[in-house]
Structure formats: C-alpha cells, structure tokens
Amino acid sequence: MKKFYLKIFSILFLFIGGCEEINDIEFEMGHKEFIVVQAELKNGYLFGGVSITRTLPLGEVFDIKKAEIKNADAYLVINGLQVVPLHYTEEGIYKPLNDLLIRAKNTYELFARIENKEIYGKTKVPVRPEPTDIVFQNNYISANILPKTDEVYGAVWIIQASAATIISKAEDFYSITEPVSETSTELIVRTQNISEEYSNDIYRELTYVKVYSFDKPYFEFFKSRNNNRSVDNTFTQGGGAVAWNVYGENVIGLFIGISEGATIKVE
C-alpha cells in the first residue's frame, strides 16, 4: 500500500499554539482524494471560519492554491434556530459576512455541499473550566475540575515572565480526560512533565497552568490521532482509524467547541 501525506492545520495551533503550523498526518492507503474540514469554535472569541480543502496527489508539494476549495455552499445553524451563511474568503476559509461571537452552551451545526457531496458537523461549546487544588508534583502540575457531562479536559504548563512574554510551554496535552460517569463530582487533569531546563528553582516562580475544556468528541480524536502513522515512528501507536467528527463521503476533519481557562500561577 502506498503512503501519502495529508496537510491539515495542527490541532495544537487551534488550541494551544497561538501561531499557525502545518502538520503531516500519514495514512497507509492508496492515493484517494479527501475533503478536509477544520474549525475551532472558541468560547468568547470571534468565529475564525471553516477551512475546506482537499488532499493532493502522492508526492506533490502542498500548495494551498491547489488544495483550497472555493465552490462550497456552506452555512451554520445555531441552536437549531439561527442560520448563518458562510462565504469563501481566501485559502479555503469560509466566514460569515458579519462578526460572529462564539458563546458557551450554544450548539453549532455545519452544513456544506460541494458539487453533489454533503458535509455535516456538530459541536457544543463548553463552559470555561475553573480548576481548583492546583498542585506541583513530580515535575508536573495537576488540578481538580468539577466536570460537566458532555465535556472533556486537558491541561498545559506554561513558563512566562509576564502575560505578554511566554518563555516556553508544553508541546501537547499529557492526556485528555473525561468524567468517569454522569454523576462524577471530581476530575483530576495533569500536564506533561515540565521540560528539564525549566524544572529548577529559577523558573519555579514563573510556572503557570492553563486548563482547557472541549466538546466530548475531542476525547476520541485525541486518543486516535496518531493512528495510521508508520509503526517505526516511536512517538506513535500503529493502526486504526482517526476519530473525526465531520461526516460525509470521503470527508475528514474536526469541527470542535473549546473553552480555555485562566492562566493560573502555580504556588
């Protein structure tokens, strides 16, 4: 079976990166064109649009001008009532004509059609997480969360000199954690281990933590996102399908709600 590389927006850009990156996701299959849909709906922020692109042939250098899709008919439905048409802007991004503020607890559905192909995605934007009992232990940070039934959680460490000066931060979540049951009253989330160069007393006073809440489908995506990579990559697990939450014939991608907590100093 041949391999091809699919270029999509890094999910870490969407949720913790703060700058645009492109990641390779490698699939073990013969070349086949897929439509790729990506959007974050971030509580308290203006909607940044939906990216709709296509995969390119095996061996071809990624070029957004070739990958972008310009002829999609797309719109959002908010809480099953409000219809918001989306319009092509540039590089495969579709946006409303007017600013759209994303709000917690709202449900957003994406409907799109490309020629005869239907695309659908749905997400509910979680509320802002409010961690308690933040503890620095064994070179990582843990925090307690009062969980909501349809939300999952992750945390990152941050080394910063000021709100505008971030020295370093975790490259990824250690895990994405979901409530054990619908009646769970406590959930513990933890960060990755702090990089060795920042785990000394010099940086201890500059150590912060931030907790994120996601719509529940992000849990399965996080668990499966390294599937379909080569098993010789020691940072991944092999085999299986990635759990996307955008649906349609030969369609993949994430349409996901997110809410970020405050950046909290670790005492």
Structure description:
With about 270 residues, the chain is mainly beta. The radius of gyration is 19 Å and the shape is globular. It has 2 domains: about 5-125 and about 215-260, no CATH class; about 130-215, Immunoglobulin-like, CATH 2.60.40. Strands 3, 4, 5, 6, 7, 8, 9, 12, 13, 15, 16, 17 and 18 form a 13-stranded mixed β-sheet that branches. The model is unreliable at about 1-30 and about 225-240 (pLDDT under 50). A hairpin with a 2-residue loop joins β10 (about 130-135) and β11. It is built from 4 helices and 18 strands. The termini are far apart. Helix content is about 10%, strand content about 45%.
Question: Major sheet, described briefly?
Answer: 13 strands, mixed
The dominant shape is: globular
Query: What is the count of helical runs?
Result: 4
Q: Quote the beta fraction.
A: 35-45%
Q: What labels would you give this structure?
A:
18 strands, three-stranded antiparallel sheet, 267 residues
Helices and strands, with pairings:
Blueprint lengths: L2 E7 L1 H7 L4 E7 L6 E8 L7 E5 L9 H4 L5 E6 L3 E7 L4 E3 L11 E8 L2 E8 L7 E6 L2 E6 L5 E12 L2 E5 L17 E4 L10 H4 L2 E9 L1 H8 L21 E2 L3 E10 L3 E2 L2
Parallel strand pairs: 3-17
Antiparallel strand pairs: 1-2, 3-4, 4-7, 5-6, 5-8, 6-7, 8-9, 9-16, 10-11, 11-14, 12-13, 12-15, 15-17, 15-18
What is shown here, in short?
It is built from four helices and 18 strands. The protein is mostly beta strands and 267 residues long.
